[in-house]
Amino acid sequence: MDQKKVLHLVDDTTAGGVMRMLDHLLAQSDLSGAVEQKVLKVKRTAFSWGKLNADVIVSHVAPSWRSLPAFSALRAMHVNTRLVHVEHSYTRAFTTLNAPRKRRFFAMLRVIYSFFDQLVAVSHAQADWMKERRLVASEKLAVIPPTVDLAQLSRKTMPPKSKTTIGAIGRLERQKGFDILIQGFRSTRTPGARLLIFGEGSQRSYLEALAEGDPRIEFRGHAKDPAEAYQAVDIIAIPSRWEAYGLVLDEALAAKRNVIASKVDGLRDREGDTRVSFCNLDPYDWRHAINNFLLSDTIEKSS
Amino acid sequence: MPTASIVVPAYNAEATLVETLASLQAQTYDDFEIIIVDDGSQDATSEIARAHQGDPRVRLVGQANRGLAGARNTGIAAARGTFIGFCDADDLWMPEKLAAHIHHLKAEPDVGVSFSGSALIDEEGFMMGIKQAPRLKDVTSAHVLNRNPIGNGSAAVIRKAVLEALAYRPSFEVERDWVFDETFRQSEDIECWMRLMLTTDWQIEGVPGLLTYYRINAGGLSAALDRQLEAWERLVAKLRPINPEFFAQHENSARAYQLRYLARRAITNLERDTAWELFARSVQESLRPVLEEPVKSFSTFAAALVLKTIGPGPITRLRQMKFKLQSI
Prior knowledge:
- The complex is a heterodimer.
- Chain A is of the alpha/beta class.
- Chain A contains eleven helices and twelve strands.
- In chain A, strand 1 (about 5-10), helix 1 (about 15-25) and strand 2 form a beta-alpha-beta unit.
- The model of chain A has no long low-confidence stretch (mean pLDDT about 95).
- By secondary structure, chain B is α/β, with parallel strands linked by helices.
- Chain B has two domains: about 5-215, Alpha-Beta Complex (Spore Coat Polysaccharide Biosynthesis Protein SpsA, Chain A); about 220-325, no CATH class.
- Chain B has helices at about 15-25, 45-50, 65-80, 95-105, 140-145, 160-165, 190-200, 220-240, 245-270, 270-285, 290, 295-310, 315-325, and strands at about 5-10, 30-40, 60-65, 85, 90-95, 110-120, 125-130, 155-160, 205-215.
- In chain B, strands 1, 2, 3, 4, 5, 6, 7, 8 and 9 form a nine-stranded mixed sheet that branches.
- The N and C termini of chain B lie far apart (about 45 Å).
């Protein structure tokens, strides 16, 4: 049987999560007999990405009005090639907070998605949103949550022994909502509680200012070994403002940590999982959830 | 099941409820129910409502007083329509209003809230010659915070799906969900619309025409203006964490608009010091209202200045003149 050529297109600025997922996918040895996979970096704003030699082209590039020429050229130059788009970026909550003119934004997505034979949503919540907003015909839509190798993380972590330390892991950017978490945590009064934040990013000084004067909050910088970060905390907080999928939630559960997550987008795929509780994007909600967690410790100790 | 539900929150509304209900019963679009929520009135409101139940479209729900937001929430919980409109028990709907909004919402699936402009009426129901003619298209969060195009509590018809997306259940609430935040006694509308803009991806859009008659009650003490400002500040503080960058960009101009609005209310009430102070604070907060709406800002400035330096005489005379002109 002929090997099929699969070409993955990624943006210059593609986020780490997408590359991790692709690395994992390319490393699947059982696929290598049937398909030959390659990754090509492209410029989102280029007029065209040229004629590409592949049986299936998979786009991981974030659509925008500025990438419309390149997407339409991609279709025009590959009339008989199967084109697949994986939507890593856009969600309901992303649109809500970042697209002031929502109808114009939906129109852009509808046009660009129409160039593809197949659209892949990374979470059921994202797919539901795409269907509700009629961004793509439902027969063209599939849900494939991204996977990465979590076995090592699982092996290297032990279950938490106490209920005092809250952890947050991720880029210190607006999307991750750590400002809401810090404000919520600050308003709890338990002296023994701690909040450890792992990661770097442009909001570091802003977040440090929010945390100033509360010695229970620590910024630990980028965690070289994620297992160590997870091992250092008892529960993981994911206060994201939007999240197409949220690999960190899978990681946390693999590392045997329960999770408090914001009730948005892909994170909602875990609704019903008893290890995950949900909060709105509201510091009072987070205070309540954190207090519940800290209090459950006191109750267990006293009983 | 009716296609539309019209929720009428009513508190001590005996003077106006009959007229309000008549305007709703006269809607040209006929597949709807009217839900009157008697919010613990002590007057004849419930008798009037009961007398209207001969019309099978009219339903009455009673409750101990919970305030406007609480009455609306009770109405939403009782509503069976796919589209839900609100009409306060002292306002009026033009006969074609419901038809216009239902048509709009059916034609535009991305639009979750359809609103219209309003004409203002006074306590006796006379047209004041003032209109609310807001921006109708491409409404962004910034427009809602600055100018609230929905304008008043009787202007919007909303998809049930939108209200479901906004609904939440405070831990102490045992009866039904909240859509409007019942801890607000003022600014409950704008709090809800801003929350809609910041937490859902629904577009809001207006239809042309002044399809609501919105009643302005004269009076109201300066304490009420203070409370109004306080409520507005509380809504900003409540919603700011959702999108701090947005508020950093638009909060000052929105506060300036809010202060200018309160200054105009103070002028109407002939409160000379309050009016001047509110206007001065508005200008100190941001000049955007002056740049965006210079005529309105200047007239506010002139009226506040006249009121402060000369007193209420000229303004009262101007108002009498206007009234005479209208009655000719």
